[in-house]
UniProtKB/TrEMBL annotation:
The chain crosses the membrane at residues 41-63, 75-101, 121-139. It comes from Corynebacterium humireducens NBRC 106098 = DSM 45392. One of its GO terms (cellular component) is membrane. Residues 10-103 form the Prepilin type IV endopeptidase peptidase domain. GO terms for molecular function: aspartic-type endopeptidase activity. This is Signal peptidase, membrane protein. Keywords: Membrane, Transmembrane, Transmembrane helix. Pfam families: Peptidase_A24 (PF01478).
Length: 141
Protein backbone atom coordinates (compact mmCIF):
# COMPACT_ATOMS: atom_id res chain seq x y z
CA UNK A 1 0.00 0.00 0.00
CA UNK A 2 2.89 2.38 0.70
CA UNK A 3 3.91 2.12 -2.97
CA UNK A 4 0.58 3.60 -4.02
CA UNK A 5 1.04 6.44 -1.53
CA UNK A 6 4.51 7.08 -2.92
CA UNK A 7 3.19 7.13 -6.48
CA UNK A 8 0.44 9.57 -5.54
CA UNK A 9 2.99 11.80 -3.80
CA UNK A 10 5.20 11.86 -6.91
CA UNK A 11 2.26 12.58 -9.21
CA UNK A 12 0.96 15.38 -6.98
CA UNK A 13 4.45 16.89 -6.76
CA UNK A 14 4.77 16.72 -10.56
CA UNK A 15 1.36 18.34 -11.02
CA UNK A 16 2.15 21.15 -8.56
CA UNK A 17 5.46 21.82 -10.33
CA UNK A 18 3.66 21.98 -13.69
CA UNK A 19 1.08 24.42 -12.36
CA UNK A 20 3.68 26.70 -10.78
CA UNK A 21 5.87 26.80 -13.89
CA UNK A 22 2.96 27.28 -16.32
CA UNK A 23 1.36 30.01 -14.21
CA UNK A 24 4.64 31.90 -13.94
CA UNK A 25 6.24 31.34 -17.36
CA UNK A 26 3.29 30.31 -19.56
CA UNK A 27 5.10 27.22 -20.75
CA UNK A 28 5.46 23.58 -19.83
CA UNK A 29 9.11 22.53 -20.12
CA UNK A 30 10.11 19.26 -21.78
CA UNK A 31 11.82 18.09 -18.57
CA UNK A 32 8.36 17.81 -17.01
CA UNK A 33 6.25 16.73 -19.97
CA UNK A 34 8.44 14.39 -22.02
CA UNK A 35 9.17 11.79 -19.31
CA UNK A 36 5.49 11.69 -18.33
CA UNK A 37 4.32 11.35 -21.93
CA UNK A 38 6.90 8.69 -22.70
CA UNK A 39 6.16 6.77 -19.52
CA UNK A 40 2.40 6.88 -20.00
CA UNK A 41 2.59 5.77 -23.60
CA UNK A 42 5.16 3.04 -22.92
CA UNK A 43 3.14 1.74 -19.98
CA UNK A 44 -0.04 1.71 -22.04
CA UNK A 45 1.58 0.01 -25.01
CA UNK A 46 3.06 -2.68 -22.75
CA UNK A 47 -0.15 -3.38 -20.84
CA UNK A 48 -3.19 -2.19 -22.78
CA UNK A 49 -2.36 -0.54 -26.11
CA UNK A 50 -5.87 0.82 -26.71
CA UNK A 51 -5.44 3.15 -23.73
CA UNK A 52 -2.67 5.00 -25.59
CA UNK A 53 -5.31 6.20 -28.05
CA UNK A 54 -6.74 8.47 -25.34
CA UNK A 55 -3.44 10.31 -25.12
CA UNK A 56 -2.99 10.47 -28.86
CA UNK A 57 -6.54 11.75 -29.30
CA UNK A 58 -6.18 14.55 -26.73
CA UNK A 59 -2.81 15.55 -28.16
CA UNK A 60 -4.18 15.56 -31.71
CA UNK A 61 -7.10 17.70 -30.57
CA UNK A 62 -4.55 20.31 -29.43
CA UNK A 63 -2.37 20.34 -32.54
CA UNK A 64 -4.39 22.88 -34.53
CA UNK A 65 -5.11 25.09 -31.50
CA UNK A 66 -4.13 28.73 -31.35
CA UNK A 67 -2.22 29.52 -28.19
CA UNK A 68 -1.58 25.86 -27.49
CA UNK A 69 2.10 25.09 -27.08
CA UNK A 70 4.14 21.95 -27.49
CA UNK A 71 4.12 21.45 -23.73
CA UNK A 72 0.32 21.31 -23.76
CA UNK A 73 0.41 18.72 -26.54
CA UNK A 74 2.92 16.55 -24.63
CA UNK A 75 0.93 16.96 -21.41
CA UNK A 76 -2.18 15.86 -23.30
CA UNK A 77 -0.41 12.62 -24.25
CA UNK A 78 0.13 11.62 -20.64
CA UNK A 79 -3.15 12.95 -19.24
CA UNK A 80 -5.25 11.51 -22.06
CA UNK A 81 -3.65 8.11 -21.56
CA UNK A 82 -4.34 8.31 -17.83
CA UNK A 83 -7.95 9.38 -18.38
CA UNK A 84 -8.51 6.56 -20.87
CA UNK A 85 -7.07 4.02 -18.44
CA UNK A 86 -9.34 5.26 -15.65
CA UNK A 87 -12.58 5.65 -17.57
CA UNK A 88 -12.31 4.92 -21.27
CA UNK A 89 -13.33 7.24 -24.08
CA UNK A 90 -15.90 9.04 -21.95
CA UNK A 91 -13.25 10.06 -19.44
CA UNK A 92 -11.04 11.49 -22.19
CA UNK A 93 -13.93 13.51 -23.57
CA UNK A 94 -14.82 14.71 -20.07
CA UNK A 95 -11.19 15.73 -19.43
CA UNK A 96 -10.91 17.68 -22.69
CA UNK A 97 -14.23 19.48 -22.23
CA UNK A 98 -13.52 20.27 -18.57
CA UNK A 99 -10.04 21.59 -19.34
CA UNK A 100 -11.38 23.80 -22.11
CA UNK A 101 -14.21 25.12 -19.93
CA UNK A 102 -11.84 25.88 -17.04
CA UNK A 103 -9.42 27.76 -19.32
CA UNK A 104 -12.20 29.79 -20.93
CA UNK A 105 -13.78 30.46 -17.54
CA UNK A 106 -10.49 31.67 -16.10
CA UNK A 107 -10.06 33.99 -19.05
CA UNK A 108 -13.53 35.45 -18.63
CA UNK A 109 -13.24 35.87 -14.86
CA UNK A 110 -9.73 37.34 -14.88
CA UNK A 111 -10.11 39.16 -18.21
CA UNK A 112 -6.59 38.00 -18.97
CA UNK A 113 -5.45 37.91 -22.58
CA UNK A 114 -3.31 34.84 -21.90
CA UNK A 115 -4.36 32.01 -19.62
CA UNK A 116 -2.08 29.00 -19.16
CA UNK A 117 -3.87 25.83 -20.22
CA UNK A 118 -1.76 23.26 -18.34
CA UNK A 119 -3.42 23.78 -14.94
CA UNK A 120 -6.84 23.42 -16.55
CA UNK A 121 -5.73 20.20 -18.24
CA UNK A 122 -4.67 18.81 -14.87
CA UNK A 123 -8.05 19.74 -13.37
CA UNK A 124 -9.86 18.12 -16.29
CA UNK A 125 -7.80 14.94 -16.01
CA UNK A 126 -8.32 14.77 -12.25
CA UNK A 127 -12.09 15.09 -12.60
CA UNK A 128 -12.16 12.51 -15.40
CA UNK A 129 -10.04 10.02 -13.47
CA UNK A 130 -12.06 10.42 -10.28
CA UNK A 131 -15.31 10.07 -12.25
CA UNK A 132 -14.06 6.92 -13.96
CA UNK A 133 -12.81 5.40 -10.72
CA UNK A 134 -16.00 6.24 -8.83
CA UNK A 135 -18.14 4.84 -11.64
CA UNK A 136 -16.03 1.69 -11.77
CA UNK A 137 -15.47 2.16 -15.49
CA UNK A 138 -12.53 0.37 -17.06
CA UNK A 139 -11.27 0.44 -20.57
CA UNK A 140 -11.38 -3.36 -20.92
CA UNK A 141 -14.50 -5.33 -21.53
Amino acid sequence: MWILGGAVTVIVGWAVALVLVDERHHRLPDRYTLPAAGGALAGALLTEPAVALGGVAWAAFHLPGRGIGGGDVKLALSLGTLAAAAGGVGAVILAVLTASAVTVGRGVVTRAEVVPHGPSMLVGALIAVLSGVMAGVTCHS
